[in-house]
Amino acid sequence: MSQLLEEGLYALISGDPGIAAIAGDGTTARVYPLRLPTKAQTPALTYFGLGGPREQVHSGDAGLPHPRFQINCIADDYLTAKTLAAAVVKKLSGYRGPCGTSGTIACEAQLVPDAFDDVGRHDFVPVDVTIWHQEGH
User: Fold this and answer.
1) Tens-digit pLDDT profile for residues 54-68
2) Which domains does the chain have, with CATH numbers?
3) What kind and span of H or E run contains 98?
4) What is the pLDDT of residues 10-26, one digit of tens each?
5) Is 20:14 a contact under the CB 8 Å cutoff?
6) What's residue 54's pLDDT?
7) DSSP secondary structure letters along 25-84
C-alpha cells in the first residue's frame, strides 16, 4: 500500500541534512502539517496542499496529478527563515526520485513573497512546490 504524498513529502524534507541542521531531524524535527503548534520551537516548517490540476488525455484522466504545496519556513528572525527556505528550495527544486512509498516524483520549487505573522511574532518565507507523480506506481 502506498502512503499519502504528504507523508512522503514530510519524510523527504525532514530527512534532508541541510534542512535538519536548521529545523531538527528524527524525533526532534520541527516539520508540521497545516500550522505551527502553539508552543512549538522555531525555526520550523509547516506544509499544506494547495490543490492542482490533473493531466487529461483523449480517453480521460491520465493519472498524472501535479498538486501544489506550500512549505512555510518559520523563524524568530528573517535571516534564519530565508536560510531555511533556501535549504528547502535546494532540496526540492529539480528533485527527481523516490518520495517514501509514494513512488517516484519530480518537483519544482520557488520562493513566493515573504510574510510576517503579527500574532505569533514570527518571520516566514513561503516556498511553493509543484509535485508531479504517477498514480498507481
Assistant:
1) 777 888 777 677 889
2) 5-133 (3.30.2000.30)
3) strand 96-98
4) 999 999 999 999 999 87
5) yes
6) 76
7) -GGG--EEESS--TT--SSEEEEEEEE--EEEETTEEEEEE--EEEEEEEESSHHHHHHH
d(CA 20, CA 37): 18
Amino acid at 70: Q
> Any idea which residue has 501535479 for its cell?
66
| Cα–Cα nearest to 71, from 134, 135, 14 | 14
Give yes or no for a contact between 92 and 129, defined as CB atoms under 8 angstroms apart: yes
Q: Spell out the residues 6+ positions from residue 92 whose beta carbon is closer than 8 angstroms to its own.
A: 12, 13, 107, 109, 127, 129
Residue 32, burial from CB neighbour count under 10 angstroms (0-12, 13-18, 19+):
middle
Q: Which three cell numbers stand for residue 82?
A: 530565508
H or E stretch including 21? helix 17-23
| Phi, psi (deg, nearest 5) at residue 109 | -130, 140
- Cα distance between residue 108 and residue 89, in whole Å: 9
